[in-house]
Amino acid sequence: MTWNPHVTVAAIAQQDGRFLMVEEEVRGKRVINNPAGHLEDTESFVGAVRRETLEETGWEFEPEAVIGIYLWKNPSLKTTFLRIAFCGRCTRHHPDRPLDKGIIGARWHTRAELADSSLNLRSPLVTRCIDDYLAGRRFPLEMLTYLGPIDILMSDARA
Fold this sequence. Notes:
The chain has about 160 residues and is an alpha+beta fold. About 15% of the residues lie in helices and about 40% in strands.
């Protein structure tokens, strides 16, 4: 049997005490998630997190460090996710940019608001990545190596 985890990236951006989040519809249910998505073929991790954040929120995201690498199995889907979470800053907003299908909109929430049970979080990874960020976990971007062709969003030497 072949095991194929879904490789994803996520952005953690904090501004004025609030975190950039995404409200999206997943299987008919509204949920809150970090800006996140799947790594595409011939794409670096840094390029993927920049692309996903822009596509889901309209914000350009500049990754500054890796927060962690997470392995989680969704018990209802029986699907395993390998997530690389980055912290960084939002540099420019494109409010008129169309967002990905299923995305309702970008939202800014405090950590306390995310603990409110009325908000449906997409997975336990949502707050775990934020909590690790708040705990000060930071690893250099250089820990990630990309040996494929240079992608458009990965133009800096650090990636």
